[in-house]
Design brief:
The protein has 692 residues and is of the alpha+beta class. It is 20% helix and 34% strand. The strands form 8 sheets. Strands 5, 6, 7, 8, 10, 11, 13, 14, 15, 19 and 20 form an 11-stranded antiparallel β-sheet that branches. Helix 13 (555-564) runs parallel beside helix 14 (581-602). The radius of gyration is 26 Å and the shape is globular. The mean pLDDT is 96.
Length: 692
């Protein structure tokens, strides 16, 4: 294999190689460029992974499992490489052709100062015939790890993050040998670990993320896919070369076929890739640079200062009224709360909030004077009014659920999941309907904050002119386009991304919106665990964390809940009208401490110290989240069933604490370590320290 080009991009280096079979690329830390050896291998793995309908399938006993290395891939030929540079950006385009004349352009974009590469692939039909794609990866990395001719046994590990409702972000790391990703005695059978998600909840089962760590060199490659629908990631190995690829779910996994007529093109979703001279935590947090850039473009004043929210959902449980909101406002007066969000149920009929949404008529019994007077009262109390919508679906008891011509249909029947049906978001009638019911409503009522929820998965797809997978992709593309239309017409509106909590915590949705609901674990003991998990997958300053306060909460429980919010954005709810002065004193102490945390929540690096936690319902051990930047650090500490916590380092000078004195927690600073003694199980506290 012959090296054809190389580029230094910040602290990373890309090298491109050309063989008689393909073009490959590899990514390494700049400091380790001279250590490149490349694995010995029998075949070469193209940076373009594609399959066209009619292609021969790859050998290796893997038909039905993977479409990588198809007939088309084997016959790709290098055409050109061009570099497009501006003052703040460099783009590398590598162009290949297949035998039919289709062109494939592999894009890599690096922005000056960034630790992340944006990558995607464009397919251009330069033939006279319709072309049908059934797989097109957004990225494909090979030569992992490039520092050995033969990878040492037990050296490479693969990390991914599991997710289910209210248990988001559980980290799993396995050696590649445990996944059977080591070559057999003869390179005949493919080793494959393929995972992903199908439907409209992209973070259901797994996050669209992968990392490979080289323990001996202490190097980690991480990648994620920015796509709101069906996706897949594949770890593939036939010989000494471990390969990673990912993008849209293919025909086998997601029923995706894309027709591309002559002289037209198709571009894959974006993926983001980085390499770090460090562990997986460091590499994962480097990826969030792509989210930081999107946030900089918005700069809402309230978001810049990390506004604190009260959301009344866990107060009314989907039955807000004018009277309850006015009562809440009286309790929140002078409590330094920035947003007041009216959650689901302001429209509800006798069937409840989950079955009656979609008509978007204000419930006159709950709001006899309409919503405008309530919004004015919120504004008068110096808070930004927010409201909940579930835009893309309709409840089964709403009038809208009978508009069959404008709903998604599967096998001739309205696609119904539980109590929900789905708008066809590409339908011009639906766009006009939602303009009136959502955008015009927000304008008329002077709403400053929009919570967009999404509470069901439409699954593999629905009837249409294209394949199930392609219909799904276009539907979700239209959903995101509607959000952009909201932003265009209401540029000052702050938008929250929610999907039964964390089912849409993927990059394209997080880049599009201002902040995201971290989970629906409203009152669970695992809240600090989930909040810490997500430091590797999103920006803490975008992670909205519930602190649901109950009138029966002890001081201990209040600190446990409130200190969890220091791991992201504070969102209060619960029995705020029935709290004692002592309870409010704890909340106000934590609220004041949160102000001191904001700079570290906005910008910093995170280290999580904890042993593996088996049960999230009854967590064991303890957790310390160490968030640091320059000479300051925040420690958020939760003990579960462990009453003594030892930190294996000196913590520096404590400049402020929260929950220490009141709960009689003892902090002992010792040589090269710190010991924290808790009088009881399940407590929370926090420290701000000066690192000197």
């Amino acid at each position: 294999m012959k090296r054809m080009s190389a580029f230094t991009l910040g602290d990373m280096v890309i090298e491109y190689y050309q063989s008689s079979e393909s073009v490959e690329w590899l990514l390494v830390p700049k400091m380790l460029r001279e250590a490149i050896v490349l694995p010995k291998k029998k075949k070469y793995d193209s940076l373009i992974q594609v399959k066209l309908v009619g292609d021969d399938y790859p050998k290796g006993f893997c038909t039905g499992s993977t479409m990588r290395n198809s007939q088309t891939v084997k016959k790709l030929r290098f055409f050109d490489q061009r570099v497009l540079s501006t003052e703040g950006e460099k783009e590398i385009q590598t162009c290949l052709f297949d035998e039919q004349g289709n062109q494939y352009i592999h894009h890599v974009i690096w922005r000056v100062g960034s630790a992340v590469l944006e990558t995607f692939v464009s397919f251009e039909n330069h033939t006279n015939e319709l072309q049908r794609l059934e797989m097109l990866a957004s990225f494909s990395l090979s030569n992992l790890s490039p520092f050995y001719e033969r990878n040492p046994i037990g050296n490479l590990s693969l990390t991914r993050y599991q997710s289910k409702w209210s248990f988001e972000g559980r980290k799993t790391t396995q050696l590649i040998e445990e996944l059977q990703l080591e070559p057999s005695w003869k390179p005949s059978g493919v080793g494959l670990e393929k995972y992903g998600q199908v439907g409209s909840m992209p973070v259901s089962g797994w996050f669209p993320y992968v990392a490979v760590h080289d323990q001996k060199k202490r190097v980690t490659w991480s990648a994620c896919i920015a796509h709101p629908g069906s996706w897949q990631i594949e770890a593939y190995r036939l010989d000494e070369d471990l390969c990673l690829s990912g993008g849209l779910a293919d025909r086998d996994h997601g029923h995706w076929v894309k027709e591309v007529p002559p002289d037209e093109s198709f571009t894959s979703p974006k993926a983001y890739i980085t390499v770090a001279q460090g562990d997986e935590e460091e590499a994962a947090q480097r990826l969030t640079e792509a989210l930081t850039e999107a946030l900089r473009k918005k700069e809402h004043p309230s978001e810049t200062k990390l506004a604190v929210q009260f959301n009344e959902f866990c107060t009314s449980w989907g039955r807000p009224t004018e009277a309850s909101i006015l009562k809440n406002l009286a309790s929140l007066k002078d409590k330094n709360i920035d947003y007041y969000v009216i959650d689901a149920g302001w429209y509800a009929n006798q069937h409840g909030w989950e079955k009656s949404h979609g008509d978007w008529q204000i419930n006159q019994e709950q709001f006899p004077n309409g919503l405008k007077s309530v919004v004015k009262a919120i504004r008068k109390n110096k808070m930004i009014p927010g409201i909940w919508f579930e835009i893309e679906t309709v409840g089964s008891e709403s009038i809208a659920s009978s508009f069959f011509d404008h709903l998604l249909v599967k096998d001739g029947f309205p696609l119904t999941v539980g109590s929900r049906r789905f708008w066809n978001m590409r339908d011009p009638w639906v766009k006009r309907y939602l303009q009136e019911k959502v955008i015009d409503f927000l304008k008329e009522h002077d709403i400053g904050y929009l919570k967009i929820d999404y509470n069901e998965n439409f699954g593999i797809g629905f009837d249409g002119a294209a394949s199930f997978g392609e219909e799904s992709r276009q539907q979700l593309e239209a959903s995101q386009q509607f959000i952009r239309e909201i932003q265009k017409q209401l540029p000052d509106l702050v938008i929250e991304n929610c999907s039964s909590g964390g089912h849409r915590l993927e990059y394209s949705m997080m880049q599009l919106t201002d902040l995201s609901s971290f989970s629906d674990a409203h009152e669970a003991l695992c809240i600090p665990i989930i909040a810490a998990n997500l430091h590797h997958l999103m920006l803490p300053c975008q992670s909205l964390i519930w602190a649901v306060i109950r009138k029966e909460d002890s001081t201990q429980r209040l600190y446990y809940s409130m200190t969890s919010t220091f791991l992201g954005r504070m969102c209060l709810s619960g029995d705020i009208n029935e709290l004692s002065e002592t309870q409010w004193a704890v909340i106000e102490e934590c609220r004041a401490f949160y102000e001191e945390c904001k700079l570290l929540i906005k910008k910093g690096q995170t280290k999580i110290l904890r042993d593996e936690i088996l049960s999230y319902r009854q967590p064991n051990g303890c957790q310390v989240v160490y968030r640091f930047n320059e000479n300051k650090a925040l420690l958020v500490i939760h003990n579960f069933d462990q009453t003594v916590v030892e930190l294996p380092f000196e913590i520096g000078e404590i400049t402020r604490s929260c929950g220490i004195e009141t709960q009689k927690i003892v902090v002992k600073k010792m040589l090269n370590k710190c010991r924290i003694e808790f009088p009881r199980e399940y407590m929370g506290c926090a420290l701000l320290v000066d690192l000197g």
